[in-house]
Every structure is written in structure tokens, then in C-alpha cells.
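Re: that chain you flagged

S.,

Sorry for the slow reply, it's been a week of failed gels. I finally had a moment to sit down with the sequence you sent. For the record, here it is as I used it:
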Amino acid sequence: MNGWLLLAFAIVFEVCGTSSMKLSQGFTRTLPSVAVFACYFLSLTSLTYALKHVQISVAYAIWSGVGTALITVIGALLFREPIVAMKAFSLALIIAGAIGLNFAGGSH
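Prediction finished late last night. Pasting the C-alpha cells below so you have them in one place:
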């Protein structure tokens, strides 16, 4: 399977796992609590297989950066967390760093 597709799966599962953490209310709700572990297992498994095709510095930067950006959007839309200018600027820097690592990465 394509390394970039596996990385995308890893990001989706990581975001679902992190969202489930919030929904689990400190592991007091069963279904979201189980989802945390299942999603993180699938995320880390996908990330591990993606590393066969994508450099670790690039894959991890993209996994964590895109995951952070998506969680920020989900937090704002679903959990009514504020997005202030400094938060938006900081996210832009994270994304720019991940893109920079990808362009500077060379071949695997």
C-alpha cells in the first residue's frame, strides 16, 4: 500500500482517538474509552507501515502537525473552543514546518 495513504489513515485514526479522549470524559464513558485505544492502535500501526515508504522526520512531522491542526478545527467546531489569532498563527507555523521538512527530505 502507498506510504502516503497509510500516513493519511494514521492521521485520521489519531484524530478520531484524540476526539474520543474528550468524549470519554476521563474514561467514564465506555464506548469512547474503547475507541481511544482502538483508534490509537490503528493510528500507530498505520504510521509504522507508512515508515517503510516515508522518511520518519517527514512522516512524524506531518502526522503530528496535520493531526494538531485537525484537532484544533474539531475543538472549535464541536467543543466550542476559541481560535484566537496566536493559535491560528502557531498552527500555520507547524504546518509550514511539516511542509519544509517534506521538501528538504530527499528520497527514502
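What I noticed first: The two ends are 16 Å apart (CA to CA).

Talk soon,
D.
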